[in-house]
Hints:
- By secondary structure, this protein is mainly alpha-helical.
- It has one domain (8-138): Sufe protein. Chain: A.
- It has six helices and three strands, in the order H-H-E-E-H-E-H-H-H.
- The protein starts with 7 loop residues before the first helix and ends with a helix.
Amino acid sequence: MSTAVHSIDELVDNFELLGDWESRFGYLIDLGKELPPMESADQCEANRVHGCQAQVWLKLVPEADGRITIIADSDAFIVKGLISVLLAVYSGKTAGEILATDGEAELARLDLASHLSPTRKNGLFAMVQRVRELAAGTEDMP
Length: 142
């Protein structure tokens, strides 16, 4: 796992420590700056997440132990930060664990939805949906 991936519990704790939303958005942007870049060859239409205001690419890489690594990138730092949050929720889990995770409930712990613009909120939930769709497609893989 990359250093950019934090646990959702750690993110919740950090958000609570920061208190105000200006600081929290700064933290999200810092998380986005830590996100490892995606190979340019993977920034293609097949990996594009539709429904996002910014350009977002996302792919799942099944590992030998059945866990899934999520690789994603965006052209906007705040969205890269949201990707880091998504990785904290989903990356390193099996397809079954991803599908059993209530992503919206996990994200609600950060109270992001009430502080994002409607287009960013829609984009975040589009990323959650895309992770779930891709995970469902990998369940049958060896």
